[in-house]
Amino acid sequence: MLAASLLASLALAQTATPAGAVPHANLQAPTWSPDGQNLSVEANFHEEKRIELLVGPPGALAPVSMPTRGSAALDGFDTRGGSAGRVMHELEWAPQGGGVFVYGASTAALDYDLYVSEGAPLAPHPGADGGPAWSPDGHWLVFTSARTGQGDLYLLDVQALEKPPRRVSKDDTHAELFPAWSPDSQQLVYVGHADEGDALWLVSLRNGVPQQLTNWPGEQLRPSFSPNGALVAFYANRDKGDRFDLYVIEPRIGAQPRKLLEGTVPNVHGPTWTANGQHLIVVTDDDDAYDPIVAVAVTGGPPTLLPLGTVGHGDIDLGMHQGVPTLAYVAQGLASDPTRDFKRLFVAPLPPLP
């Protein structure tokens, strides 16, 4: 009865507009371009172990061409028919605009490399590269690489691509994952992953000395800086192994994390900040309520349900589209849809928040 009532209220409150769907694929990881005119999204064909990239205005997405090496197709891809095993993902738009982006793509042997939008490889090397993050000033690209046998962070100077990338982290006991930039492009926060537990780390480009922020058992995922750089939000299953909660912490040694919300669905980009840094937009892990999207105030208090009219939510991004703060997110459908199966792409203006 509660579920039916919630569906009815969501249908009445619908503000979402369908923006993309791919037959037999779940869409994931929507990302606004800096000017808010275009979106990227991944189409995951799970049964085929294949992921495609699509880019374009909402409602008019088009596939990104498979990268090439010279005149031949990317090693391991069969261009004569069939594309099972092809993976193109983790698209990051250049902050200076111009439609430039970087993304990861794999060969059949799972040798992931990074490519720019026209398909040229960036710092190719044996060993998987992935998780690129562009600094807000557009000067640097940081990524995780297994080229040394351990997942380490490397820094690539976009203005000197002929130079080899510089290794940022050198901890042989951890794999460094999920790097995220501070708004001033001077610091990185990332996760040091190990079997005994994860830790959040902070490193400054000025001195290059990593500083440990947390030391917990379990997993910590997808840190993201607030717009003013005063806080870092992240997910962790510290209190319960099968439940990821939302936390914030000040980026300094000795700071204590604060839990803001229990039971979230981790977002591929990390917790989504509003432009004023007063709220975080997250998906709650609540099957009975169809995993609603909520806004959480960083000062605390109960979450605010966003009445979007959709159900079964996943990854989110927030950008300025046509001068309006607009959510791009994936969901299984509108509450009024008779069929809700594969995740599709929706856009909706961000509702007013308290």
Task: Give short descriptive properties of this protein.
eight-stranded antiparallel β-sheet; four-stranded antiparallel β-sheet; 354 residues; 3% helix; mainly beta; disordered N terminus; Neuraminidase; 1 helix; single chain
CATH architecture: 6 Propeller
Q: Estimate the helix proportion, in percent.
A: under 10%
Low-pLDDT runs: 1-12, 70-82
Secondary-structure-derived class: mainly beta
Beta-strand percent range: 35-45%
In this structure, how is the largest beta sheet organized?
8 strands, antiparallel
What is the H level of CATH, i.e. the homologous superfamily?
Answer: TolB, C-terminal domain
Characterization of the model:
The chain is mostly beta strands. It has a single domain, classed as Neuraminidase. It contains one helix and 30 strands. The chain has one helix at residues 2-12, and strands spanning 17-20, 26-32, 39-45, 50-56, 62-63, 68-69, 72-73, 88-93, 101-105, 113-116, 121-122, 129-134, 140-145, 152-157, 166-167, 175-181, 187-193, 199-204, 211-212, 220-225, 232-236, 244-249, 258-265, 272-273, 279-284, 293-297, 304-305, 310-321, 324-334, 344-349. Strands 20, 21, 22, 23, 24, 25, 26 and 27 form an eight-stranded antiparallel beta sheet that branches. A four-stranded antiparallel beta sheet has the order 1-30-29-28. Strands 2-3-4-5 form a four-stranded antiparallel beta sheet, with no helix packed on it. Strand 25 (279-284) and strand 26 (293-297) form a beta hairpin. It starts with a helix and ends in a 5-residue tail after the last strand.
